[in-house]
Amino acid sequence: MTDHTANGIAPLRAKSPGIEYRIYFAIIFTISLPWALVSWALGLTNPQSEESGKGFIARAWRQASIITPTIFSA
């Protein structure tokens, strides 16, 4: 088995999101909550929708997790 910490070189770890990313995520999540609630309520009328079982918080979280990285990659 190979020792990846030999010669003082540690294996690379994924960098955790910074404070700026988390602030943007929180703002976008907060803004998307009302829209997710409306789309969730409208989705209740159509139970055959693929997202009918997901809650509005999960929808808002998913939208924020899509939009925030897009902002930071620009």
3D structure, described in words:
This protein is an all-alpha fold and 74 residues long. It contains 2 helices and no strands. α1 packs across α2.
Quick summary of this structure?
The protein is an all-alpha fold and 74 residues long.
What gyration radius follows from the Cα positions, in whole Å?
Answer: 19 Å
The secondary-structure class comes to mainly alpha
Query: How helix-rich are the residues, as a percent range?
Result: 55-70%
Q: Give the terminus-to-terminus CA distance.
A: 41 Å
Q: Please count the helical segments.
A: 2
Which residues form runs of ≥5 with pLDDT under 50? none
Shape field: elongated
Number of strands: 0
- Order of helices and strands, N to C? HH
Mean pLDDT: 81
Report the sheet-strand fraction. under 5%
List descriptors:
single chain; 74 residues; mainly alpha; 2 helices; 0% strand
Please describe the topology of this protein:
Elements: H1 19-43, H2 56-73
